[in-house]
Specification:
The chain has about 240 residues and is mainly alpha-helical. The chain is built from 11 helices and no strands.
Length: about 240
């Protein structure tokens, strides 16, 4: 039996399930509950898995512009739903709305970053433009962690150091980001659940199901804003 048995479709389904569980916990479960911790721990799988597939998509796409545009359009569609879910309110002004962007925009920035680092620009220009990408990513969900993961998955995709580098960078970035924001380590320790992603990616067999090619291409994009909208509607019904 092949030890690497997870296809792209299977990994993306895990990511979607984890994302849904994470958002349900965020909206409905009390933060002090052990159930909240477990659900959000599992929810940490989604962002690294999708960052991994951003790299896979960049490498294998036949049309970079269409790939980027699809991501960008669904980022725009998702933004109102995302903002309301995170802040439980409508934005007070335009600046607030555009300084708290959803993860789709971070994936778009990461695609631009990959185009920069894989291009023929001079090293100085690559560093400068990459720095701008990291600055812009800080306006988005998951901040600089996603472009950092994307670069690791891109440059070390065939390296035995990839797992160790991913874990090290994740631990450092999570600690630096969340330690000043919380009163105790326990409050944000579930964030380290991203490390579990290394096991799943190690089981990826590199195969893409032709049978579900359209599902692979469109499902995550459509599901992202749709599931947030459904959760928000359920919350309104419960409150009423």
């Amino acid at each position: 039996m092949n030890k690497k048995f997870l296809s792209a479709t299977m990994l993306k389904c895990i990511a979607v399930i984890a994302m849904t569980i994470d958002h349900v916990a965020f909206m409905f479960v009390p933060p002090e509950s052990p159930v909240y911790f477990v659900m959000r721990l599992f929810g940490r799988l989604t962002a690294p898995i999708m960052s991994f597939f951003i790299v896979e998509g960049f490498i294998h796409t036949k049309n970079y512009k269409k790939y980027f545009l699809r991501m960008f359009v669904f980022g725009i569609i998702s933004q109102p739903f995302y903002f309301v879910m995170i802040f439980r309110n409508t934005p007070q002004n335009t600046a607030e709305f555009f300084m708290n962007l959803n993860v789709m925009f971070n994936f778009c920035i990461s695609l631009i970053l990959l185009k920069i680092v894989s291009g023929k620009l001079h090293t100085e220009k690559k560093i400068f433009l990459s720095g701008i990408c990291f600055m812009l990513s800080d306006l988005c969900d998951w901040s600089i962690m996603i472009p950092a993961w994307v670069l690791i998955f891109f440059f070390f995709r065939n390296s035995k150091f990839r797992t160790g580098l991913f874990i090290s960078v994740s631990v450092v970035l999570i600690t630096l980001k969340y330690l000043p924001m919380y009163n105790s380590f326990a409050e944000f320790s579930y964030q380290y659940g991203v490390i579990m992603t290394t096991v799943l990616i190690a089981l990826y067999n590199g195969r893409r199901s032709q049978k579900f090619s359209k599902l692979n291409r469109w499902f995550f994009y459509v599901y992202y804003p749709l599931h947030i909208a459904v959760i928000e509607i359920l919350l309104i019904l419960i409150v009423i």
